[in-house]
Amino acid sequence: MSPAQSPRLVSSGRARIGDVGRAARRMIARPPAPNPIDAPGTSEATWRAWPELAGLPVMDITRWTSAVILAAHPDDEVLGAGGIIGALAAAGARLRVIAVTDGEAAYPCHGATDLVTRRVQERAAALSALGADSAEVLRLRLPDAGLAGRERDICERIGELVSGFDVCLAPWEKDVHADHEAVGRAARQVSGRAFFYPVWMWHWAVPADSRVPWHQAVRVPLPAEVASRKEAAIRCFGSQLLSTDPEAGPVLSADFVTHFTRGYEVLLPVSRP
Ligand SMILES: [Zn+2]
Prior knowledge:
This protein has one domain: 3-Layer(aba) Sandwich (Rossmann fold), CATH 3.40.50.10320. 34% of the residues lie in helices and 15% in strands. It has helices at residues 22-27, 44-48, 51-54, 76-90, 112-129, 151-158, 178-190, 201-204, 224-234, 238-241, 254-257; strands at residues 66-71, 94-101, 136-142, 167-171, 194-197, 218-221, 264-269.
């Protein structure tokens, strides 16, 4: 989905359909297509029953001595690459997390300032749970749900910040979330060796889905201790797992989170390594 077609998102995972300006509204003859993030998702049982997934080629990350991880929102990096972060931290790698937004739009009924404080603390706790306390966290403070069309801005902000690292990990540029896609495209432009980590893809895609470049996908197995640390890290994001908004459920449903409790993580290289 291109940025122009992407629904405007109001949070890490909550999409508001039809949130368009007056001028655009006059031009629309038909209602916008349903957002696949809002639709019922593919169960983790369905993914685990697909043998090709566990049979993806294994990628060795033991030679990575440094990594920069881009996150559109606090929790993306842990969901999509928390195991890799934990494994690299255990190996003494230099780690830098670039937080593009602070996720302040997750619950419109809450004050943004309070939510930012909480989400920043949650990320710090999650990194600690991963054994990655030493990871450097840089916050760009760009607007949550406002990254579509701001790739150039993102590129300018992260260009020098990603240099000097062995690899750059970023949300997938076709994750069907406008913020994730913008960060992914920026990573493609500024990093010579980028890998995408899917997040919402596990919800809207299905096994053998033709929209996913499975022929490029690789698998990074996680040691049992690292997988356990990742589960503990995910539990740190209480603001996303338990909704306090009377009009909305949690951003991260219990079913959705199970996608990130496998014994491996999947990356989509910009070009095959
Ligand atoms: Zn996100």
